[in-house]
Design brief:
It contains 10 helices and 11 strands. It is an alpha/beta fold and 248 residues long. The chain has a single domain (5-245), classed as Purple Acid Phosphatase, chain A, domain 2. Strand 7 (199-200) and strand 8 form a beta hairpin.
């Protein structure tokens, strides 16, 4: 990383406001305890879906951008969510991949959700989710480059230069990227694909530890040539935070 900079890169949150709140607290405390730096927080996308509090996560992320340099990448779940306002077939697909929990987090009860037809959901969605929230998600970036790293949600097409990557690949790619063993233009830090532990393949580092399913939200801290890990971990309803050195 460039001298004098510090990056906190947070994996897929997926509606886990409890873990996100713990992570924010630890990042703020960690940054305050270290030498002054030009600090940036990067959220790797998929703030919404599957977990119970997507609306709260979006609200808190937006608040954080007002007091901290926070840059947010678009994930495939934000893309599905936004497309659901325009296409009822996408909405139907969205509901099968965590969208039900997302919509309910905006104030719709489980009973009301179940009683509504897909047509009724499609009609009500613009009233349920504010234009402010939709504009916020639409503002998310596709790629961030810093030092020897590139941050993306899903990955990159290894056969294409960084400046020619498609949005489709940046938000959705999986096997072609994950199976690539050769060098890449920069070390790719990504989410999208869940791993039980942080996966470091040399050319890429995957930090989606499945917060909505495992109760573990991971952040990778990058400064100069050093790496550290921060994890917010929920077990039996209790959340603890671990801040430790990085083991590749």
């Amino acid at each position: 990383m460039p001298s004098g900079t510090r990056y906190y890169v947070v994996g897929d949150i997926h509606g886990r406001m409890d873990l996100f709140a713990a992570m924010i607290g630890e990042i703020e405390a960690d940054d305050a305890s270290r030498r002054p730096a030009d600090t940036t927080v990067v959220l790797l996308g998929d703030l919404v879906d599957r977990g119970p509090d997507s609306a709260a996560v979006l609200r808190r992320a937006r608040e954080w951008t007002q007091v901290r340099k926070v840059r947010i990448l678009a994930g495939n779940h934000e893309e599905m969510f936004l497309a659901s306002f325009e296409d009822i077939d996408v909405l139907r697909h969205f509901f099968k991949h965590g969208g039900r929990e997302t919509v309910m987090s905006f104030g719709l009860s489980a009973e009301a959700f179940s009683e509504m037809s897909i047509e009724e959901h499609f009609g009500q969605l613009p009233q349920l989710v504010s234009l402010e929230d939709r504009d916020f998600m639409a503002s998310f970036e596709e790629m961030i480059i810093a030092g020897d790293y590139v941050f993306v949600h899903a990955g990159i097409d290894p056969s294409v230069p960084l400046n020619q990557q498609s949005r489709l690949d940046l938000l959705w790619i999986r096997e072609k990227f994950l199976r690539h063993e050769g060098p890449l233009p920069k070390v790719v830090i990504h989410g999208h694909t869940i791993f039980n532990e942080v996966v470091d393949c040399g050319n890429r580092i995957g930090i989606d530890t499945g917060a909505f399913r495992t109760g573990v939200l991971t952040a990778l801290v990058l400064e100069a040539d050093e790496r550290r890990l921060i994890q917010a971990i929920e077990e039996d309803g209790v959340i603890r935070v671990e801040n430790r050195e990085y083991d590749a």
